[in-house]
Amino acid sequence: MPRELAESLYRDGRLREQQPAGTYARKVLEQLLIDLSWSSSHLEGNRFSLLATEELFRRGTAGDDADAVMLLNHKAAIEFMVDGVPMQGLSASIVRNLHAVLMSDLLADTEALGAIRTKMVNISDTVYIPTQIPALLEDMLEMILNKARLIKNPIEGAFFLWVNLAYLQPFEDGNKRTSRLAANIPLMLYNCSPLSFLDVSPRDYALAMLGVYEFLDVSRAVDLFEWTYRRSMKKYIVVMESVGAPDPLRLKYREYLTEAVGLVVRDRRSAQTVIEELGLSDERAPGFEAMLLDELKKLAVFNCARYRLTMTATQAWIDADRPH
Questions:
Q1: Closest Cα partner for 90 from 166, 183, 13, 180?
Q2: Are 262 and 277 in contact (CB under 8 A)?
Q3: Number of Cβ within a 10 Å radius of residue 94
Q4: Which of 24, 74, 96, 234 is paired with 136 by a 20 to 30 Å CA distance?
Q5: Is 178 known to sit in a ligand binding site?
Q6: Residue ranges per domain, the chain?
Q7: Which residue, among 266, 272, 301, has the nearest Cα to 59 in the 3D structure?
Q8: CA-closest candidate to residue 182, choices 145, 133, 150
Q9: Non-local CB neighbours of 115 within 8 Å, separated by 6+ positions
Q10: Which residues pair with residue 14 across a beta bridge?
Q11: What is the CATH number of domain 3-243?
């Protein structure tokens, strides 16, 4: 990617004020979950519409529908990144776990989840055949990640990861979707607008990848990346503006609220008991009880990650009629 373009995109896409890594992604998380999950799945031929995806996330159950599983896996993988990347950065364990979450229940062999492949992989509609030696694949994956960590501009880092992970094909299946989500890791670390591949058509995406696979030509990929990233930036600027200034009371009680919600949902403790045990009565923490009860009322499987809850635990609590 041309350096001038990367610098321009970084200037336009970054969060202006100094914030902890991952802040941008957390602020737009609910919209990002839908956008990136649907766009990435759509590029894999998923038949769900955007509206059907939103309904699926509200419902939170897939049954035996593989397309629904694909979407819910994307959602869980994005939540995993938002929680894990700020603490662990860009690492092989993050990328391999990302693959494991994305392909959960979609690969016949569960040992292949997050594992460097030992089988030959064929990519449709191209004569390109990726490297087939497992030890070499593992070394090259580490090399790609090491190089990406040295790239100072997160836009360049995102593009580098997207193209090179897709080219390497380190996993048995799900490589392109892993590369799309992994491209967001540098963006999260530097608080840049996420990349959700909004409105990218499967044909345009395939042509961009074909140039990389067969000719080592990234020109189409650069054009596609710039186009879709600028669309992502515009979308999330609007989302950020709609969020408004953070509530000072919510910021004050942030960690207490996470702990309290977790105790109610995971441990099935009553809200009143939790408030007393944490010493957060209205006398000592004005407004906390009302905030906790309101959050418990709004809690759903599509927004539970912010409280470090799994979708399974949250759904079980909801199915039990939200005991609190």
A1: 183
A2: no
A3: 18
A4: 74
A5: yes
A6: 3-243, 248-319
A7: 301
A8: 145
A9: 96, 171, 172
A10: 192
A11: 1.10.3290.10
The answer to whether 97 touches 84, Cβ cutoff 8 Å, is yes
Residue 123 confidence (pLDDT): 86
CA atoms within 13 A on the CB side of 261: 29
Q: Pick from 235, 206, 307, 234: which is nearest to 265 by CA? A: 307
Tokens of 303: 């927004």
Q: In terms of Cα–Cα distance, which of 257, 162, 264 is closest to 205? A: 162
Q: Which residues of the chain have pLDDT under 70?
A: 244-247
Was 284 annotated as part of a binding site? no
**269 a known binding residue?**
no
179 marked as binding residue: yes
Q: Is residue 91 annotated as involved in ligand binding?
A: no
pLDDT digits (tens, 9 = 90+) for 116-173: 999 888 888 888 999 989 999 999 999 999 999 999 999 999 999 999 999 999 999 9
Six-digit token string for 120: 């030959």
3-state secondary structure of 9: helix
Residue 162 half-sphere exposure, CB side, CA atoms within 13 Å? 27
DSSP H or E segment with residue 310? none
Nearest-angstrom CA–CA distance, 120 and 134: 10
